[in-house]
Amino acid sequence: MPSILRKLIGLVVFLLLWEAASRSGLVQATYVPPPSVVLVKFAGLFGNPQFLTDVVSTLLSWVIALGLATLIGVPLGLLLGGVRLLRTVSSTIVEFLRPLPSVALIPLVISVLGSGAQTKIALATFAALWPVLFNTIYALHEVDPQLVDTARSFRVSRLRRLTGVTLPSIAPFVLTGVRFSASVALIVLVSTEFLTGGTIGLGQFVYTWGSSAGRMDMVLAGTVFAGLFGYLVNIGFVAAQRRWLVWAPAGGAM
Fold first, then answer.
1. Looking at the domain assignment, is residue 157 inside a domain?
2. Under 8 Å CB-to-CB from 90, ≥6 apart: which residues?
3. How many domains is the chain built from?
4. CATH number, position 64
5. Is residue 165 part of a domain?
6. Are 36 and 42 spatial neighbours (Cβ–Cβ below 8 Å)?
7. Which long-range contacts (CB under 8 A, 24 or more apart) does 111-116 make?
8. How far apart are CA 165 and CA 142, in angstroms?
9. Is the dihedral of CA 132, 138, 143, 148 positive or negative?
10. For 28-86, how does the pLDDT look when each residue is reduced to its tens digit (9 = 90+)?
């Protein structure tokens, strides 16, 4: 049976069970409306100007946060992974910052940056930085030493070794880190929009319909959009890795 067919069967079974649970009263339809209702509301969202504005705000912030996390994480990972002294000196502060939940930093970031889009972008960048950083550090230890030794024996310059040996070798791991960071950034963005009480964003859309209107069908419709977007982004990264990094399978350190 093709893989895509198995996935579709699993999805259909899940939706049927959800529909049956809501329609039978096993769960209250007020709080968990059936998927037949949610999917209709989901389709109608694309004709809602406010929803489209919220989505554009969230996705633009997501692109910026993921780009910043990559631009910071890859060079920093190369430094920490390539210079043992620097890695040792910074290990304590890195291990201290890594487990900090981004949403717990909301009051601090608001006091420093204000309550605009810069707050959610900063928090999403902070959260998305770590998968990229640690995958880059890990990847440097996986570079084939024979390739490095061969390049050195032919007196290849450091810059040429970096671009011709190191970067192609670590690229699959880095792309995997970016793929994980993409999901993390989206989660933190929506959570921050939900918690900070802003006026725009997918998180605010969910908060408004859930708290003031009590419309769980609209809440779940917005949630479906976030989940579908994250799923498509993940598929896109896997496809890009298979297409462009033909010397390595899709996957990586994480």
1. yes
2. 80
3. 1
4. 1.10.3720.10
5. yes
6. no
7. 115/196, 115/197, 115/198, 116/198
8. 12
9. positive
10. 888 899 999 999 999 999 999 999 999 999 999 999 999 999 999 999 999 998 888 99
